[in-house]
Automatic annotation (TrEMBL):
It comes from Acinonyx jubatus. It comes from the Eukaryota. This is Maestro heat-like repeat-containing protein family member 7 isoform X2. Residues 132-387 form the Maestro/Maestro-like HEAT-repeats domain.
């Protein structure tokens, strides 16, 4: 490791004079000499086949290249895992010890090597709570490359399947990365989250998966098409793992809270998002026991689905209205249009008691009249007229009206 750190230092410092001095030989420059010393040390300790294996992969050349150095470091460590080297565990312990120093000059090389070593089950078995806390502290560093490697470490923990306790310590740090100001870290986090959802179980990680369900909410209207797609992919995969036996508060509340959003995104500008929403709706219907709606979700258009949803779940009309209100802020004009239209339909079904609870809708529709999309602004104005007309009707109800009352609303 000392020789590897020396090589990293020389590459980082640009100490490659042999490239500029044509008369110098590789044996004379410090970088090549360090690489040769590393090879010799490994051969003398019984790792000659390992040296040859790295040579076949081009690892030694990458190690001396400024552009490919860290790829070379990764290759070295990965080869040790593949060859199941006896020294994997002691080297891992050594790296953890030096990473207790936050300002260690070779921290990136150490993390590159450590991340690969953790793929080895024998190495992973040595990870205790103290080790995890040392790693967790590095999430606070300001180096994106290290944070990305830490996210890969978390992914490796999940893949091992027997590191539940270690993973739980790192859960809040992973979710915190979703709010990073660095776009690359956010994308890396979502890539890792997709893997986590695939490998985690409700039995051992119900709290984390439930938190993730809530955290995804605002990202469904993300302007970044790639990030929005990943959010829907994660939610779709998460829903597929949910059984009726685990659908309890607060998860059930959030699943119900996202129904209108899923329906409206059947018209998402990204076809891939729309394709995710339909099976997600069908699985939602399955775990909620909505057999009739499931058949409609599976093949009908948006408006047929919305009308059927309002008809069957009329006691949740106000809740659906609040979901529409959130979608008024969608960056996609067609979704805002549908949200306003559906809000108008819901309003017409409300009774006097429920109509008194929609002051917020008045305010939002007032803003929507200034929407840059002419169709949205027109629909908002029309819906406001409907509200005013309904309000007058409620003030002076016709004496011959014998309309029956719907059951009171419910939010569970």
């Amino acid at each position: 490791m000392a020789l590897l750190f020396q090589i990293s230092f020389l590459v980082a410092e640009g100490d490659t004079d042999f490239q500029d001095q044509q008369h110098a030989t590789k044996r004379m420059d410090p970088l090549s000499s360090s690489v040769e010393a590393l090879k010799m040390l490994m051969r003398s300790t019984g790792y000659g086949d390992y040296v040859s294996y790295i040579q076949e992969l081009g690892g030694w050349e990458l190690l001396t290249s400024p552009e490919g150095h860290y790829e070379g470091v990764t290759l070295l460590a990965r080869a040790m895992v593949i060859k199941n080297c006896w020294h994997n565990r002691p080297i891992f312990g050594f790296l953890i010890r030096i990473l207790q120093e936050r300002d260690h000059k070779n921290r990136l090389t150490a993390f590159m090597f450590l991340t690969e070593l953790l793929r080895c089950p024998d190495v992973a078995a040595t990870v205790d709570e103290v080790t995890v806390h040392i790693l967790a502290n590095w999430f606070q560093c300001e180096e994106p490359a290290i944070v990305k490697l830490l996210l890969r470490v978390v992914e490796t923990f999940a893949k091992h399947g027997n590191m539940v306790q270690q993973f739980r310590i790192l859960e809040p740090y992973v979710l915190g990365c979703c709010y990073s100001l660095d776009d690359d870290i956010v994308m890396e986090t979502f890539t890792v989250l997709k893997c986590l959802v695939e490998h985690l179980t409700w039995k051992h990680s119900s709290s984390f998966l439930t938190q993730l369900t809530f955290m995804l909410g605002p990202l469904f209207e993300e302007e970044s098409e790639h990030l929005r797609l990943m959010a829907f992919e994660i939610y779709g995969a998460l829903l597929a793992k949910v059984k009726r036996t685990v659908l309890v508060f607060p998860l059930k509340h959030q699943v119900l809270n996202l129904i209108v959003l899923l329906v409206l995104h059947l018209e998402d500008a990204n076809v891939n998002v729309a394709q995710i929403c339909r099976p997600a709706l069908c699985h939602t219907a399955t775990i909620l026991g909505w057999s009739r709606l499931k058949a409609i979700f599976a093949e009908k258009d948006v408006w047929t689905i919305l009308r059927a949803l309002l008809k069957q779940e009329g006691n949740r009309a106000l809740w659906f209205l609040k979901q529409c209100l959130a979608l008024f802020k969608s960056p996609q004009a067609p979704i805002r249009q549908t949200a306003v239209r559906f809000a108008g339909q819901i309003i017409q079904t409300l009774d006097a008691e429920e109509a008194n609870e929609i002051e917020e809708v008045y305010t939002a529709l007032g803003y929507m009249r200034e929407d840059p999309d002419s169709m949205v602004s027109c629909l908002a104005a029309q819906t406001l007229y409907i509200l005013e007309a309904k309000e007058k009707l409620l003030v002076n109800p016709p004496t011959s009206c014998f309309c029956s009352r719907r059951p009171r609303k419910t939010y569970s």
